[in-house]
Amino acid sequence: MSEKVEHPTQIGGSGRSSEETAVPPAQPQTQPQSRFGFKSHKSFKHEKVENDGYTQRSTDPNGYTPPKGNGAAIAHVEGYKRQELKRGNTAPHKIILQEEDAPEALGYAWSPAKKWTTLSVIFVVQCSMNMNAAVYANGVSFLQDKFGVSAQGARVGQSLFLICYAFGCELWAPWSEELGRWWILQSSLFLVNIWQILAALSPTFGGVIVARVLGGFSSAGGSVTLGMVADLYDPNEQQWAVAFIVFSSVGGSVIGPIIGPFIQANLSWEWICWVQLIFGVFVQILHFFLVPETRSTVLLDRHAKKLRAEGRSNVYGPNELRPWRERFTVKEVVHTWIRPFQMFLTEPIVLCCSLLSGFSDALIFTFMEAFTPVYEQWGFTTEQMALAFVPIAIGYFLAYLFYIPPLMSQRKKLRLDPQGTAPEIRLKPLLYLAPLESLGLFGFAWSSLGPPKTHWIAPMIFSAMVGIANYAIYMSTIDYMIAAYGPYSASATGGNGFARDFLAGIAAMYASPFYTNVGGESSRYHLEWPSTILAIISGFVTIPIFIFYFKGAYFRERSKFAMTLAGERQGRNVHRLEHSDNAPGGGKTVEEINA
């Protein structure tokens, strides 16, 4: 015998209950579609609930049951699923939209063309931010001449920018979660551009340092740009986008030393700043006109306002009913800011992956100092020195191409068994590519003997190997932490970005003395031993990659963050929609994929 189910009042409807609905016996579930053609997150069946004072509740076929209390009821209302705060059918109620209620309003439902247009602009934005950190090194001689400071003193501006950049990324990220990505990136780009003007026109070296410090704190960086990737893609479908944004991050750091020598040879200190400003204004304009808001809570707020304008007066976005004083309490803000550092210090996976990634990024800034004395042996001019960095850029591009086959294989496995595929699969490419860092540094060291013993092309080839490893380390560690920590991935990857920028800032200060003083300039191998030391260190730092690949489950089982995520996935089977799933009949079942 079928059961009768009363449906609550529809938004904008007549207020009458629906027809009697038969609930058939449990059968294999298929993914239902709303009347808009979108697939719902989960299949629900409705049950008559007695003696709880509410109209109906919903039971997930996977076994997850929403909690009772305060009149919680989940209903289908004009194609949406939403949680209603309601007691019986008498009191007015407010509906708060969640991600699963309006998938068509979110970034997940955007077309591939719109997503990749957005990502392409973010690519250029990230290149601009990282170039600001790197090109400063070519202005050191200008600062010496203009302000009478030592070379080591002039490098303080680069070091402080990177260290403040590390903290700036973490300070901006929480606000992007609350206010939206678009306003935060526009604000960040605007402030960075303003500080470029201060650095260029400052009559004192102290003013330059203040401008660099403010510029570092004003840079939103990877925490926000990677957050935008999470806004557009399901964690199991975002590898292509993550690889693309990581390419922009490492690529931006090498743009500076490629264009910097031409400025150094032909222009002045002011043009070091003007070039950054011109690039910054260009990307800000691109972002202003071509990048829409991606943050899901902001998009739901806008969608709720649209529904209210259409007469659905009781629909609200997730932030609309939260007073500002509750959203931005000191306790909440401090807790959000502290979490990345908490995970960095207490989570072995985050700590080791971040230190590995940070050390690899610091190598690039160490190279900025090492390349000059190395290639001067072959008589490289200032402009020719720029060409010495091209192999690193080539290494980044090759690494990006190397990741295509393993990413295709990973996506196939994740589509077939998203819950049963361990996050450690994302570290597999790193087993082969990470050792190139140590090998590349050894090769670079002992091919730097100069003429007539070696040709200048040899250290360039080995520096390309270091570039491949640097990209791979950043890409795989970020991808792994996103998979392992889920909703906590912003904090986990925040620790990764913090380590990269912070250690690079330190490297900017020790690189030149390291290559000058280790072994002494009079030593026969004074350029070879510093790179050899770095190669040995890199060999030890890459060891945790193999430990986590084979024993990662052991560490995740002892992580409160990773276990919380595992419990949620098992209990709720959450899946975010992709555009290919949103067209009627566009998605495929496991059986169809296997066929």
TrEMBL record:
Major facilitator superfamily (MFS) profile domain residues: 118-556
Keywords: Membrane, Transmembrane, Transmembrane helix
Pfam families named among the record's database cross-references: MFS_1
Predominant cellular place of this UniProt entry's protein: membrane
GO cellular component assignments: plasma membrane
Membrane spanning residue stretches: 240-263, 269-290, 349-368, 388-408, 429-449, 455-477, 498-517, 529-550
Name by which UniProt lists this protein: Multidrug transporter
Entry keyword Transmembrane: yes
GO MF annotation list: transmembrane transporter activity
Keyword Transmembrane in record: yes
Ranges of biased composition (kind: Low complexity): 21-33
Entries under InterPro entries matching the protein: MFS, MFS_dom, MFS_trans_sf
The organism of origin for this protein: Kwoniella pini CBS 10737
Region entry Disordered, spans: 1-72
Topological type in the membrane: Multi-pass membrane protein
Compositional bias (Polar residues): 53-62
Localization, UniProt: Membrane
